[in-house]
Design brief:
It is built from six helices and nine strands. Strands 1, 2, 3, 4, 5, 6, 7, 8 and 9 form a nine-stranded mixed beta sheet that branches. The longest helix has 30 residues.
């Protein structure tokens, strides 16, 4: 131990004599640790850790390739809502089909307004993924009947605990999303933040409310 302590003292004296070298060495080590941490986090989420849903290996994303016309969201490979409806109604290959549309929103409630990660989802979204609720209920096919007629929202578990302090009376509470009145009908199961790695959804709303959430788009 005396030899180890002596070596450490010698190393510290050497580093003090060369502050520029010491600074570069520390920065290099810090950058290396940061890069490795970021890479491991990505690999852990994408490869090692499955999505928090039953049978995640059976989940398939449908995309379109080739030429297209009209306005599209994303890189042009996404399906339109009418196409989703046609696939859903004619489906014979999958146990279920659902649709989703990411859209940042502004939530007002409790005297504060903030930007949140929002997602418009079809009524089949939660049932197909096998995700239930921790409070209240999730969005169901009954919320897919009338365009603009289902102003309901589901909070993610983490957003409920962080933003609303796990308020047990959250179900039935009124909020504003993009200036539109909504009713919170439930909180999704703990650990579920949607299926897009890197985009943790905080608020889920019915797809039927897209005209109100994305006016003029």
């Amino acid at each position: 131990m005396r030899r180890v302590i002596a070596d450490v003292r010698f190393a510290l004296r050497t580093l003090r004599r060369a502050p520029l070298f010491t600074t570069l060495a520390v920065l290099s080590i810090a950058l290396g640790i940061g890069a490795n941490t970021a890479i491991f986090t990505l690999v852990d989420q994408v490869v090692l850790r499955p999505l928090p849903i039953p049978a995640p290996d059976q989940l398939v994303q449908l995309r379109i390739d080739g030429t297209f016309s009209g306005n599209t969201w994303g890189d042009g490979s996404e399906l339109s809502y009418p196409m989703y409806q046609d696939i859903r109604d004619r489906n014979t290959a999958f146990s279920g089909v659902c649709a989703r549309f990411e859209w940042p929103m502004h939530l007002s409630g409790g005297g504060a307004t903030e930007r949140v990660n929002g997602e418009l989802v079809s009524g089949t979204y939660f049932p197909v993924l096998g995700v239930g609720s921790a409070r209240g209920r999730v969005i169901t096919p009954a919320d897919d009947r009338v365009i603009g007629g289902h102003p309901v929202a589901v909070l993610s578990f983490d957003y409920w605990t962080g933003r609303f302090n796990s308020d047990p009376r959250i179900v039935g509470r009124k909020i504003l999303l993009n200036g539109q009145p909504f009713t919170i009908i439930g909180v999704s199961r703990r650990g579920f933040h949607g299926i897009d790695i890197g985009y943790a959804t905080q608020v889920f709303v019915s797809m039927m409310m897209k005209p109100q959430m994305t006016p003029g788009w």
